[in-house]
Design goal:
InterPro entries: Ribbon_hlx_hlx. Residues 67-88 are annotated as: Disordered. The protein has three helices and no strands. The protein is mainly α and 88 residues long.
């Protein structure tokens, strides 16, 4: 699929335990794939379960129907990248 402005992949930064990073690096080295490939697979295969666990039923229904609710403007996607905020 050719990437356009509408379907361009986004970059997400995440902190992980060194053991997970080492396992991910080993997986990438042994298979010859990039770490980002495996991270994307984990997200694609696990986001549904996370949505079921964490989203309220009405929001989950919107997501599943393809009508994503608007994001809150006061929260930034990178709020925790440069601070030492505790995980919620």
């Amino acid at each position: 699929m050719r990437r356009t402005a509408e379907n361009k992949l986004k970059v997400v930064a995440v902190r992980v335990d060194p053991q997970f990073e080492q396992r991910l690096r080993l997986l990438a080295e042994v298979t010859g794939r990039k770490q980002s490939f495996f991270l994307q697979q984990m997200i694609e295969n696990g986001i549904g379960a996370m949505e079921e666990t964490w989203l309220p039923p009405d929001v989950l229904e919107q997501v599943r129907s393809g009508a994503l609710p608007p994001l809150q403007q006061d929260r930034t996607a990178t709020a925790d990248l440069f601070g030492d905020q505790a995980d919620e």
